[in-house]
Give the backbone structure.
Amino acid sequence: MHHAGLPSREAIIERGLREFREGRFFEAHEVWEELWMVSTGPERLSLQGLIQLAAALVHLGRGRVDPARRLLALALAKFQDTPDGFAGLSFSLLRRDIAAAADRLAEGREIPPAAGLIDLYPA
């Protein structure tokens, strides 16, 4: 439901996507959390996954690999049933990229930069 003067669900999701794509993962997390708090059902689960993904990249940017890996795994689990097209994104590609990023972190060599590690491809 949309009330005059309040941003629409789509506008909030888009603002979070913009923040994420510009490498402002904490800000993306905060934006999506606004919508997550009033969401229900599958949408709530998918939004929680986006929040966890953004939080993982915040941790990674601070050099905290273990929390980043845990949050990537949680996000991936939340996205298992998210269809392509939710939030205008390709979740099949997102699941692939999260799994690849988690594998890369598990190898434990160098910490990759958070920005650019995972892309949000349009559906």
